[in-house]
Design goal:
Length: about 325
């Protein structure tokens, strides 16, 4: 069955672990630098990195919970748990990252605090950029490899992928790199002008950026939780495979719904070859369902007989 398999799960775990290690080191460094310099934008970046570090824990839980096998109460497995835990991570990014950064920035505008030891701030921002860049390159490499299988560009795949942890890491790392540039600009403007206002504005800009990223992640997880159909190109490929099966004369209905990272549920109406009696047809249908679910990506398959007057799918 031409559906990307669950082989990418191990690489996703590697991507999340690298992101966790990078964010933890960066969060500690930024926190120390924020205390030394008194920079509002550095404090916003520290809050951002601590939020990302906490989020990686949610993403690790998401990756683990989604792999729990199917049972009697969950015949399609627990794949959708990945979207629940990834939703928690996105909410954490909004609350702990965006809200704190904006609040602190506004506070600094009202009651500014002069910064000092700017060199320390620049060094920490440079080191953070390198570490965040390593994590970003890992997530981009994985996403690029998967995007090629779907004939998508990188950003299209990040938005469309059924893997919420890959999307979250890529989005968080992208926001982190942009935030570091904004923080450096705010810190430099603070040093040049002697005013804390640019630093405070940079903190607010970082907060708005994190809020926007969090909104996108929350919305994508919501859509997968309520039910997202597979990419049309995957559907066309699956339809072709079904029509090429010698036991199937035609297919009149097909729905592929995503039920977890790289996992789909297949429902189809088919017309079987031959003219068997009803009891024999039921046995053939169950055998076909069993064959379809041998593919790791298909966690459930339900086939029904087509009515004689139903048109075939193109």
């Amino acid at each position: 069955m031409p559906i990307p398999s669950s082989g990418g799960d191990a690489e996703t775990l590697t991507t999340v672990i690298i992101a966790f290690a990078a964010n933890l080191l960066v969060a500690i460094a930024k926190s120390v630098a924020a205390l030394i310099t008194g920079s509002a934008s550095l404090l916003a970046e520290a809050a951002h990195s601590w939020a990302d570090t906490g989020n990686e824990i949610f993403l690790l839980v998401a990756n683990k919970r989604a792999k729990i096998p199917a049972d009697e109460d969950h015949p399609l497995g627990h794949g959708r748990e990945a979207y629940v835990w990834s939703m928690f991570a996105a909410l954490g990014l909004f609350a702990a990252g965006s809200a704190v950064s904006i609040t602190h920035g506004v506070s600094e505008l009202i009651d500014p605090t002069p910064a000092e030891n700017f060199t320390v701030g620049y060094i920490v921002l440079a080191i953070s950029f390198v570490l965040e860049g390593i994590s970003f390159l890992q997530s981009a490499r994985q996403a690029n490899g998967e995007a090629g299988k779907f004939d998508r560009d990188l950003l299209e795949h990040i938005l469309a992928t059924s893997d919420p942890t890959l999307r979250a890491v890529f989005a968080e790392d992208s926001a982190a790199l942009i935030g570091l540039v904004v923080a450096a600009a705010g810190l430099a403007a603070h040093q040049i002008t002697g005013s804390a206002a640019p630093d405070a504005i940079a903190s607010i800009v970082i907060g708005v950026l994190l809020g926007w990223v969090a909104f996108i992640l929350i919305n994508r997880n919501r859509r997968f939780l309520v039910g997202e159909v597979a990419d049309p190109r995957v559907r066309d490929s699956v339809l072709e495979s079904l029509q090429n099966m010698p036991e199937i004369a035609r297919v009149t209905y097909l729905r592929l719904e995503i039920v977890g990272p790289r996992q789909v549920s297949l429902i189809a109406d088919v017309d079987l070859t031959g003219d068997d009696q009803e009891s024999r047809l039921a046995v053939r249908l169950r055998a076909l369902e069993a064959r379809l679910t041998e593919t790791p990506a298909v966690v459930g398959a339900v086939l029904s007989l087509s009515a004689p007057d139903e048109p075939s799918l193109a």
